[in-house]
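(Deposited chain)
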Amino acid sequence: MVATLPISIPRDFNVNDEQFLQFARANPELRIERAADGTLIVMAPTGSEGGNLNFELGLDLGLWNRQTQLGKVFDSSTGFRLPNGAIRAPDLAWIAGDRWQSLTSEQRRGFAPICPDFVMQLASESDDIAMLRLKMQEYIDNGCRLGWLISPKTECVEVYRPRQSVESLSFPTSLSGEDILPNFVLDLQAIFKSVE
């Protein structure tokens, strides 16, 4: 099982944001990201069960955000240009309203040059967990304030925070958005039950 297929770009060939966007538009069937070193990463599409779980998680966060109006929620098709130069697309992301408003309209249309305040990755059957862990740490290293790596198959969650060790939770029933997503509580019982 191959979870990702790295495509190396020669050192003298740089793909800027516009070229990456053109490549992504020309290949809409591909799920791609660009690592900080310029490597293109092609990922397997999400399976049906994973896609449903991504939607349910996004719906929960979206409803909370609609009520609080504290920021913007983004789905897995959204790429962000991180400070290290990588273009990453988490399964779910949230950016505080004031940070989003600080971007120009042009920046918002492309791969926004901002690291989300919150990211969530849902480990699917085709994902390499070690690669997801590196990706989660990359988000934290680039300014993310809270990250959840959720593994429905093992019913485990890894919580990522700046300047702290990763917290591993086995069989949690819920997750708190802490002070990043105030009063947001994700009920994991429904998520974990759906994969039985």
The mean pLDDT is 87. DSSP finds six helices and 13 strands in the chain.
